[in-house]
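Quick illustration, no need to memorize.
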Amino acid sequence: MPQYVIAIDQGTTSSRAIVFDHQGNIVSSGQKEHEQIFPKAGWVEHNPIEIWDNTREVIGNALSKANLTRHDIAAVGITNQRETAVVWDKNTGQPVYNAIVWQDTRTQPIVDELAADGGVERFKQQVGLPLATYFSGTKIKWILDNVEGAREKAEAGDLLFGNTDSWVTWNLTGGADGGVHITDVTNASRTLFMDLETLSWDSSILETFGVPASMMPEIRSSSEVYGNVHSSQLLREVPVAGILGDQQAATFGQAAFEKGGAKNTYGTGNFMIVNTGEEIVHSKNGLLTTVCYKLGDAKPVYALEGSIAVTGSLIQWLRDNLGIIKTAPEVEQLAKSVEDNGGVYIVPAFSGLFAPYWRSDARGAIVGLTRFVNKGHIARAALEATAFQTREVLDAANADSGVNMEDLRVDGGMVANDALMQFQADILGIPVIRPKVTETTALGAAYAAGLAVDFWKDTDELASNWSEDKRWLPTMDDAERDRQLRNWKKAVTKTFDWVDEDVQ
């Protein structure tokens, strides 16, 4: 009897495989980073072949560390960086171009062209999303328009599209040798092409974008058996049974199954998701409407989402571009070397601003600089930028829901940073709670897969696995919180209207 479920977490900076036991505890893991490719300013790419090679390697690492074989694994769950688009030849398995990453901004002219008729909210009622460079749809169109021979191949039915969940699933289940071409409702809801009510591709929007319907994966639920791992792989014959986009997976892993349940993930970017139950809520405050999850034949559960483009990647920027720190964890000690931010605010609009502003014309700014400022203040301001952006998203969520959040469950790599979490509680004015298992993204994918094969009985059993590790309570007085927020909002306005015809 298999005792474990394995989750493949195909993220923005790395691919991981994590083995979980029945209590939701981590048994073993493997992880490998892949190259971040920046061909031009604003362009961000990944090599899909490298991602698939790394995925196979980390599965092997995770199994070998715990001395496990495929016979010990009940199911495979997959979670992934959403909106990162891969287009490949179904006959050869070769991508026609690198994966275009969710952070990439090259498709702004396509957004402008499509928004000329009806504005950026042209399709929002159907798909829950504004026209933006963030989502997969414009990336597919760019590849078809700019890669030689791609459109002809697509129209001949030879090309397939998928976010990285589809790419990994297709390869895992056989690739050109009978691979399953699917996606789940959560990933489909990030393309600009899925109707939120029918959970199917909108043929008129596909036609408007010039994307052949034959490229699109079949939309399935988040928890069902899609197929088995191919006989050529280490996990051969193990069912692939769960797919959730990374932020929805983290919500699932945090056991936010009730309407009003919420979580905030601190990763490359930050993503807050609020469960709205079976109701589709259209935001009036700059949030996205998305699918939270769908379990088998049950009705879909929807969510509001606040997406922030740059949080953890700002710390990487301090390390890799400026050389202020040598490793990411050093930022906490450097930030603690000063009492406050010294009047400095960093607005990391490297690829424009996402929620709640949606300003593609914004670019990053460091404001409030004086001769007094040192690298400690810069480090502190970088951490605080994450907390300030989260506060603005939480305010939008409260306004849309009409109910003020009483606390915030958090996860992701940055929640190990005590200084950041304390400042987060201070600037929100509510408790911030970290669970014992912070790898909630992978855990959510494991849960979805395990439910499909009866490894876990129901969501009540999953909720009983959740336990609190640490809680931060706000200590900042109201006047200081208001002052800091006022300065932050002033700093944000300095990033607007930077990009024009002469400046990209």
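The mean pLDDT is 93.
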